[in-house]
Amino acid sequence: MTSIRKWQVGESLPEVTLAPVSRLDLIKYAGASGDYNPIHTIDEEAKKAGLPGIIAHGMWTMGNLAKLFTPYYEEGFVQDYFVRFQSMVFLNDVITLKATVKEKDEKAIRFAVAAVNQQGKEVIKGEAVFSLYE
Amino acid sequence: MYQHDIGKRSAKVKNVVERGAVKKFAEAIGDPNPIYWDEETGKRSRYGRNIAPPTFPRVFDYGVIEGLKLPSKGLIHGEQHFHYERPLFVGEELYCYAEVKDYYEKQSSMGLLGFLVIANNGEDPDGNLVFTSTSTIMINEAVRKAMSV
Lengths: 134, 149
Prior knowledge:
Protein name (chain A): Dehydratase
Organism (chain A): Geobacillus thermoleovorans
GO molecular function (chain A): fatty acid synthase activity
Largest sheet of chain B: 5 strands, antiparallel
Strand content of chain A: 25-35%
Strand content of chain B: 35-45%
Order of helices and strands of chain A: EHHHEEEE
Oligomer: heterodimer
Helix content of chain A: 10-25%
Pfam family, one (chain A): MaoC_dehydratas
InterPro entries (chain A): Fatty_acid_synthase, HotDog_dom_sf, MaoC-like_dom
Distance between the termini of chain A: 18 Å
Structural class of chain B: alpha+beta
């Protein structure tokens, strides 16, 4: 098991590229989260709302992005996690998850985090502070 | 338009971090790590039990803030922040409530945008804060006019 502490300022955790966003992904997230806003699952409702088609829940993308830190829960936990929703995620988009060390000390590591689509556009970006146990 | 709602809170609602709900949520965000759902993995971990993913507080019931009227359509989720004192434990009880933290308006290319900041908080049974989940929701001019407020 690698340690999260080994990464230095400027280095990145291994990136994760997701499979193309599918309708089933969003139906599953709607059910698991209780967010049934139909713009995420029903084409006609998305179009009525002025969208070209259904869009992913921002929280689906934010939830996915957090899994970059899951392998390190023996060393600490995600104390703060902030994102700004910059751009919409559509069906079949291919999202890549990124985290780069911005600052670090004995107690915590601050990461810049982002989810980027196949055009290289940041769909969400923000910060995560991973608090380290002694 | 929401200035007078700042400071309003809902009554606390008891929630349980349910094992099945955590497992389903972890699957839905494509994070199958057994720390979330496998009892043995949880027992062997430093937590001695399973924990929930950081964005899991979306599923809790935070009650209703009396008098706060939100449009049913056209809200844009602009920003989201989670702050934790510690991870959430599977099986624990949390007392959750919502609070209107702020409201402000800004000129943008889409006209005057309203920014409503709502905090969803969770406390342990002794009243210690475990997490705060803060959402910034954007409300555009058209939606506000449609609500005629």
